[in-house]
Sequence to fold (194 residues):
Amino acid sequence: MAKLIGSKKIRTAVFISGKGSNFENLVKFSFSRRSIIEIVLVISNNSKAKGLRYAKKYKVKKKIFSFKNPKKSENEIIYLLKKNNINLVCLAGFMKILSKNFIKRFNKKILNIHPSLLPKYKGLNTHQKVIENKEKYSGCTVHLVSSKLDSGRIILQKKIRIFNSDTPKTLSKRILKQEHILYPKAIKKIYSSS
Fold:
């Protein structure tokens, strides 16, 4: 694990596909006095991603890749990450699966936040699944990205109770609030234990 050198912040890129609330939250975290990251880039596979408005608002450089040719897009992203000296990638609602080759070539830390208590409920539609299966608890997980979907080493988790009245929408809202608390904590944890 890379150590934080002096007061130098870790140059970070955030990958998004949608609303970008975790992206905005990480940007706000990066501005705090005790933050260890600096968000240099936001990358999206969706030119209409609502979260891209935060790039303008917080003056973060943005880049969009279509992923029509995934290999070409990934090669261009790797080039961009290296050019900008990125040492940490945070996936925040990024709806593309990065290839083994990408993970190997980036060769730094890639983190993801997932809206379930991994290893349960990998992939999509997690809130729907936990309610259908009458689970008593759900939550969110920050993990290192490996070549297997949602299977990398778990950094931190937050468990919340599921209410009888919960719908996928209400559960999603409550878990998202916890995601905003958990992601910065997990970043601090992974670098303080370096």
Remarks:
- Residues 8-107 form a domain with the Rossmann fold fold (CATH 3.40.50.170).
- The longest strand covers residues 37-44.
